[in-house]
Specification:
229 residues, alpha/beta, 2-enoyl-CoA Hydratase, Chain A, domain 1, seven-stranded mixed β-sheet, 8 helices, ATP-dependent peptidase activity, protease, ATP-dependent Clp protease proteolytic subunit, serine-type endopeptidase activity
Length: 229
């Protein structure tokens, strides 16, 4: 039986008792976003909207995208990647399980020096793929040409973001190329393998950290319910 979305307490200044809000609303206010499924248009639109909103609200505080993603749609994933480059707030990416295919492209798209993998995370890159096509031959050829363009574009992105030559990326993408966190760091996909205190310092604490149940001046409301819920 599904448990639904967990709720956490928060307390507004002047209130005698804490209220309860959805876990994700509270975490969004702390600027933590989650990609924990295959990339599709729905999750892409949600993440794009949250990044734009939170960046406009405060461009001086980093956004954090935690990734556990097996891949997904290329166009939807590119929308997330491009928005990460567009917003003024820097975007930190963290692989917390698996970042495969389009998930790894989003991981490598984080701000330089702010791309992290958990010690037991896995990263996988490969060439774009499409479902079998049974249309007319001419359309099959056109489809193949478009896939080649996408592959070249994705290869160039990996090369630019990792500092590796395009030919090496091209060879690595010939098959499903799995990497441990340390191998991904050596490959330039992540900058740091999170471990112990060093990992938590990356997120920063102090002015930007808040108690789950706020008290005094340090408590504030969550992202408003509605389009940001």
């Amino acid at each position: 039986m599904p448990i639904g979305v967990p709720k956490v307490p928060f307390q507004l200044p002047g209130d005698d008792e804490a209220s309860w809000t959805d876990l994700y609303n509270r975490i969004y206010e702390e600027r933590f976003l989650f990609l924990g499924q295959e990339v599709n248009s729905e999750i892409s639109n949600q993440l794009v909207g949250l990044m734009v909103y939170l960046s406009l609200a405060d461009k001086t505080r980093d956004l954090h995208i935690l990734i556990n993603c097996p891949g997904g749609e290329i166009i939807s994933g590119m929308g997330i990647f491009d928005t990460m480059q567009l917003v003024e707030a820097e975007v930190q990416t963290v692989c917390v399980g698996l970042a495969a295919s389009m998930g790894s492209l989003i991981l490598v798209g984080g701000a330089f020096t702010k791309r992290i993998a958990f010690p037991h995370a896995w990263i996988m890159i490969h060439q774009p793929a499409t479902a079998s096509y049974d249309g007319p031959v001419v359309e099959c050829v056109l489809e193949a040409n478009e896939m080649l363009k996408m592959r070249e574009n994705i290869t160039n992105i990996y090369a630019q973001r990792t500092g590796k030559p395009s030919w090496q990326i091209y060879e690595d993408m010939q098959r499903d190329h799995y990497m441990s966190a340390e191998e991904a760091q050596a490959h330039g996909i992540v900058d740091t393998v999170g471990d112990g205190e060093d990992f938590y310092h990356t997120f920063g604490d102090g002015e930007d950290s808040y108690d789950t149940v706020g008290d005094g001046e340090d408590s504030y409301d969550t992202v408003g319910d509605g389009e940001d819920s």
